[in-house]
Amino acid sequence: MPKGPRGEKRPADVVSNAIKVARLAVGDETETLKDGKSAAAQELGSKGGRARMRKLSPERRAEIAKKAAEKRWKK
User: Is the pTM of this model over 0.85?
Assistant: First the structure.
């Protein structure tokens, strides 16, 4: 089965996929990402990310961002 940009399951045929995407765009359907994590784990993870951001200096955050961008563009 084809997957969307974040791993969502989508219909295999073109017409069904177009209808699904249209319903998502209009808001008639919602699509949830199931990555195996509970809502509590996701919330704690986001809190940890914010705490790390506050702890790092702006220069160190810039270094990390540059390194990540280099990795993305290297592909």
Answer: no
